[in-house]
């Protein structure tokens, strides 16, 4: 085989690979690991108190992906598992994690003071933000996002559990609710979805 033929074949292979790189993603679009939404309106804004005692609005994080989860610090399983997975996903994102803001909204504001939230959320990741408010404020925000929660009586007035929605809500950088991830999603899949939403 002549050098000219080899050169032509090499160029053909390179061009073919480049073309495949352009066309294959279109032929096989990315499949998200949760429910993708096409909401025409931006996500409802709200104002709550951060774990540092400051007031914060959802709109303050416009320009970043917002990963939002409703839970409580006394949760025995779902909340720590979800926050652990989310923290690992942030690590997998590397430098891109700077473009993500994780919000943990307490559904148990009676026990979840800013101080308690600060200790809890920063245990998982230093950049996570805990949010709390009055019971009425929390109820209003939960209703805006279709989040269910209910108190389950325990052995005493201070010992009780909270049933709650376990999904993770993701708001894109333009402020639209874009993706709902189910409980049990892996850190790798969450990171892949967030990476795709940042494109």
Question: How would you sum up this structure, described in words?
Answer:
By secondary structure, the protein is of the alpha+beta class. The chain has two domains: 1-30; 35-197, Glutaredoxin (3-Layer(aba) Sandwich). It is 37% helix and 22% strand. It has five helices and ten strands. The strands form two sheets. It has an eight-stranded mixed beta sheet, sandwiched between helices. Strand 9 (168-171) and strand 10 form a beta hairpin. Helix 2 packs across helix 5 (187-197). The chain is globular and about 60 Å long. It starts with a helix and ends with a helix. Residues 3-25 have low confidence and may be disordered.
Blueprint (SSEs and pairs):
Elements: H1 3-27, E1 35-36, E2 47-50, E3 55-57, E4 65-71, H2 78-93, E5 100-106, H3 114-124, E6 129-132, H4 135-144, E7 149-152, E8 161-164, E9 168-171, E10 177-181, H5 187-197
Parallel strand pairs: 4-5, 5-6
Antiparallel strand pairs: 1-10, 2-3, 2-6, 4-9, 7-8, 9-10
Helix pairs in contact: 2-5
The proportion of residues in beta strands is: 15-25%
**Mean pLDDT across residues:** 88
Named CATH topology of the largest domain:
Glutaredoxin
List segments where confidence is low: pLDDT < 50 over at least 5 consecutive residues. 3-25
Q: In short, what is this structure?
A:
The chain has 199 residues and is of the alpha+beta class.
Descriptive tags:
10 strands, 199 residues, eight-stranded mixed beta sheet, disordered N terminus, globular, alpha+beta
